[in-house]
Amino acid sequence: MRIRKYIVNKIDEAKPQIIRDLGKDAIIIHTNKIRAKGIKGWFGKHYFEILAAADEKSQRENLKPQPNRQPTPPLETKNSELEEIKEQLLENQKLLNNVLDGLEHIPSHFPPVYSKIYKFLINEGISQEKAKKLVNKLREKGQENDLIQSLKKIMLKEIQPILEKGVIPNENKVFRFGLVGPTGVGKTTTIAKLAAHSSLNERKSLGLITLDNFRIAAAEQLKVYGNILDVPVYVANNLEEYELALKRLNDKQRIYVDTAGRSHKNLKELQELKKYFDKLSLDYVFLVLSVTTQIDDLIPIYKTFSLFNPTGLILTKLDEVDRYGNLYNIITHFKKPIYYFTTGQNVPDDIEVLTAEDIIDKILGGYHA
After folding, report:
1. Most Cβ neighbours (<10 Å): which of 19, 194, 195, 221?
2. How far is CA 222 from CA 256, 264, 333, 346, in A?
3. Residues 61-96 pLDDT 10s
4. Is the dihedral of CA 178, 183, 189, 194 positive or negative?
5. Who has greater pLDDT, 43 or 228?
């Protein structure tokens, strides 16, 4: 096994370097986000320390002599990086606009102490409408001794009943899990984390099936994780191959099914996938969403993917946000349990379950009276 470390501004910047140095079968085994100080946490720059690994066979294959040819500029990679930068800047701009707009329209009837709490909620990323409702409920209580404690109770009462439904029984029976979601949210890495959790922590026998025949790299990535975990991985290009894979996995307690990412705007493709999905006999369907996407953009995404009747959500990229109010937006708007949160690229470590108390503490933890 060969391991190399990279320091980059964006995780995707490391990918071409990793492929060049370690081969196309290399995997990221550890990431560490380092933040440089900014203005009140707003514009601090992120750096990433990344560890990647490949076995010696993959390394030798990558070092085989190649025919002499002129190097081709990696336009696709550069375009991908530029698109990611644009998307991140757009999300940051939307969040900033929401904050500034919310601060400009503080309800005039709020007394100073409540205005301060309203400003804090807006700054944390909670939508204006939801922030106003929370402050109004707080005022109705009429208790000004410990407003934040009262606010915690209000929020807990709202989100705890929703999150309590997001529990998978640890039973010795077969469960089939399917993951759907838009492109770029990290479904394949997430399914590897779920598989590792089932194998290493719950000691369940399991198998993996990928329906993602659009991206060769995704299937190969899942196979690498399968080799590490010593679990079988099957690529199903059609329903017959899927059913054959199920027969081969009939002695497994947990079966995880990965799918290709789809744009919520491509309704035709999603409807085709839905026809396929209806025949998979899944026990749980997880809609995977990125917490970095603001609620106004998540609403149309959720509306389209709701045709899969998701059991609940998995929220990814929690490590990439500094404000947690969007969690409250997501939970109270969609009213779906969140089964897992992912917090980085590391398999199996960067996945966790958060309670309602955990989430509220993240949102309100930075308030100072």
Report:
1. 195
2. 11, 24, 33, 14
3. 444 444 444 444 444 444 545 555 556 566 656 656
4. negative
5. 228
Q: Would you say residue 97 lies in a domain? A: no
Strand locations in 36-102 (E): 46-54
Q: Is the pTM of this model over 0.90?
A: no
25 and 144, same domain (yes or no): no
Greater model confidence, 210 or 48: 210
Choose the final residue of a domain: 162, 182, 198: 162
CA atoms within 13 A on the CB side of 161: 6
Please tell me whether residues 113 and 183 are part of one structural domain.
no
Q: What average pLDDT does range 244-252 have in this prediction?
A: 92
pLDDT score for 214: 61
Q: How far is CA 184 from CA 47, 158, 190, 226, 317, in A?
A: 20, 30, 12, 21, 11
φ, ψ of residue 188 to 5 degrees: the values are -65, -45
- Per-residue confidence (pLDDT) for residue 346, from 0 to 100: 82
- Residue 102: what residue type? G
- What CATH number did the domain enclosing 291 receive? 3.40.50.300
Q: Give the pair of three-digit tokens for residue 154.
A: 């209000």
Q: Would you call 305 exposed, middle or buried from its count of C-beta atoms within 10 A (0-12, 13-18, 19+)?
A: buried
Query: Are 298 and 331 within one domain?
Result: yes
Burial class (CB in 10 A: 0-12, 13-18, 19+), 133: middle
Q: Is residue 128 part of a domain?
A: yes
Q: Which residue, among 229, 205, 208, 204, has the nearest Cα to 219 in the 3D structure?
A: 208
Are 18 and 4 in contact, with CB atoms under 8 Å apart? yes
Cis, bond preceding 348 (omega within 30 deg of 0): yes
Question: How many domains would you assign to the chain?
Answer: 3
Kindly report, residue by residue over 91-150, the tens digit of the pLDDT: 656 656 555 555 556 666 678 889 999 999 999 999 999 999 999 999 988 766 789 999
